[in-house]
Sequence to fold (336 residues):
Amino acid sequence: MGIGFLLWTRACFAADTVRPSSPINIFAPASTPASEIYHLTLFVFAITGAMFVVVAGLLCFAVFRFRARKLYEASEPPQIYGSNQIELAWTVIPVLTVVVLFLATARVIFAIQDAPKPPAALDVTVIGHQFWWEYRYPSLGIVTANELHVPLSHLNHPTSTYLRLTSADVDHSFWVPQLAGKTDLIPNRVNEMWIDPQRPGLYLGQCAQFCGVEHAKMLLRVYVDTPEQFTAWVKDQHRPGNQDPSVAAGRRVFETQACMNCHTVTGTAATGRFGPDLTHFMSRSTLAAGAAVNNAANIREWLKSPDHFKQGSLMPAMQLSDQQLDELVAYLSTLH
Ligand SMILES: [Cu+2]
Fold:
């Protein structure tokens, strides 16, 4: 058993997979919707916890107080049939409790849904794919994947981010618990949510709706940038794809193999939309929606056999030669 457990932990923490730098945590809210939900959670815990203590306490008391004292007690205890007071109490108290919990929940739902949109809000369209995330910033003309960058928001000068969520295939769910509750991404429908993160940093999440074999590796990474970081990131995203002549061989492989049918690199003939936009691939610290660290060795392994990191991902293994792999890695590594 001990060895089995060791093997299991080894498998979970294989060296080339990404370990989260911050845990996925619902108890450390960093944005208004998340903190509203957090306070509701505490309230519900307090009420249900108090009920548990009272009911379990009465049960223990009854078990102890009315236990059989002699091994063979001659008579049964007195039998009571029907009690209006007790029946009223166990009907009215639970009904009141449910009403209170319902009202408290409804208040939080409407407070989040009806919050006025601040004029400085940023719009981002999120499109769920099996098994990665596409992000489009219509007002900034940016298309990217898997790692979402949003600006920091101040309570008295909010620069919230409004997400419009939809799906290219099946249902997914966007869940970054430190920023907001879950919102589903459903084909042919647009759902909305907003976040106003108040602390810069990286926030982790996870697709929260089972969407296929690699659902577990459809990870979310949201970078909350200071205004300077965000401006710099936007500026970088506006540069066209790299045309460095030293990697022309790799670019040729990219444009002559099927890569360009599924991936976009702006400034080249590649305009595919089935897979992630690769124009600024190297600006991401992970590849394949958080499945592996983005470095040359892992990119090579990914191109050779995507199954190595994500069994069942929708990117095919392309049967490339060692030389083509090296050239492609050299080319992709210039896409900053
Ligand atoms: Cu999913």
About this structure: Residues 66 and 314 are 64 Å apart (CA to CA). The chain has three domains: 2-27+117-237, 32-113, 245-332.
